[in-house]
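pls read this stuff:
=====
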Amino acid sequence: MSETLLETIHNPDDLKRFRESELEQIAQELRAFIIEIVAAKEGHLGASLGVVELTIALHYVFNTPYDQLVWDVGHQAYGHKILTGRRDAFHTNRDLGGISGFPKRSESEYDTFGTGHSSTSISAALGMAMASALKKEDRKHIAVVGDASIASGMAFEALNHAGVSGADLLVILNDNAIGIDPSVGALKYYLTKTKSGKETGNDNIFESLNFDYSGPIDGHDLPLLLSELKKQKDLKGPRLLHVRTVKGKGLKQAEIDQVRYHAPGKFDKITGEIPASDSSKLPPKFQDIFGHTIVELAQENEKIVGITPAMPTGSSMKIMMEAFPYRAFDVGIAEQHAVTLAAGMATQGLVPFCNVYSTFLQRAYDQIIHDVALQQLPVIFCLDRAGLVGKDGATHHGVFDLAYLNCIPDMIIAAPMDAIEMRNMMFTASQGLELPMAIRYPRGRGKIVQWKQPFKQVEIGSSRWLKKGKNIAIVSIGPIGTMIKELLDQENLNCTHIDMRFLKPIDDKALEDLFDTHKYIITIEDGTVVGGLGSAVCDLAFAKAYQGKIHKLGIPDEFMEHGPTADLHKIAGIDCSSTLELIKRLK
């Protein structure tokens, strides 16, 4: 069987040996290869399919990696990885020990900047361009950014600086009118108008920022792309090429249902169909518990509003947006704005639920401190995807929230163990708190099927004694407590187990009781061991002169890589077998 053209490409130099007329076939083969692997292994599909032609053209025209290419977010970098020496390893994409699903500097010299969060590419590429100018290097710098990402504040900051920098920077705007969900905001409408040719050069926003603007052009027209990129290669200074693409291009279902096929899971590589599954008897996902619960609460309290930065589907805020379209808001990729918007609403007596993925709330840390906590505004943060999230890896693990929130005065920090607790905490938060509250919960499903129970008020700062034993006490927070409960029951272990529920205010009385009655205390959390539950317990133990031994279990003080969540829990030592081994050593 003869080799495909793609199989002969091990790096961009191999790609350059082909005639331009052969690149169309390579594009077909690259798209088919991505579909075949992702169909079986899962991953981010739609974005990578949408930039196949652009990826080929960039590596064909520019001298990568000397010319430096930065992919914003990195959802769309699969084709880039395949063409830059990782085709044979691509089947390991997102596997434990395999290649990352995002650009990663330690993985390849072609990955000039590690990405995973949005809107960083222009700043990074500008920094590279300015450094090259200082070193008197003649190299090109290209940032590929999406229409959803370029609306973020950080991207505007970079454009504002780049426009007066004189740097040799090419920004390629990959405009497909969608991020993970459809793009929102005024800039989206501006770009739509630009694509239709209704605006003139005199009111072009990018030219107003001192960028040499070109486009829009068809991002699937390879000859046109090649021609335009060759022109751009010969230009200097800040410039922007507006490229119009279709997310999911080449797979009919992915083009039609772009939200679902952003990361569709496993699907049929021929038909594109996603296997049907009956989830009616399974426990719900935590995100759906949030979505249905906030609607219930909003039905009884007209002051409740919902806010999410560009994740209505992923967070299930979409459920409220459909039920109360004028009381739920997608603000786009703008975490800082989302937090301060919520703060503004809170000053007017509204009850804002601000739903942000844990890893993305890191981007709004100043706003949490300055705009919310300092003013004691009762914003309710619902932190989805807390803990280890699995194959998305280090950029997406939500393992720092307990620690980075714990040092902020006047923050209430809660981590429900199960769906019923989560509902009750949301209910409690909506009942007139005077301080901000964060409720963190993981990706995926819980274990309680009959979760829709009547609401009950939860005493802020209270814990739950789930089991009383002797000698050894286990103090857990969040859903990992379910594993501890099952372990103690299955192994018939005579250990005390407390579900803390709140990291702040922490239940000092319950912990002091443990100090008086137990020789060993094990703390366990799916967050970093530095600054979280274990640290809080150790601080109190020191203050109370506890004479026993405390073992802190949690995410080690390092960045955890990608892989199945169960495997990562084992590596971190917070899985069932590791915990059992420790208990047996102490008995």
In short: The first helix runs from residue 12 to 16. The radius of gyration is 26 Å. The mean pLDDT is 94.
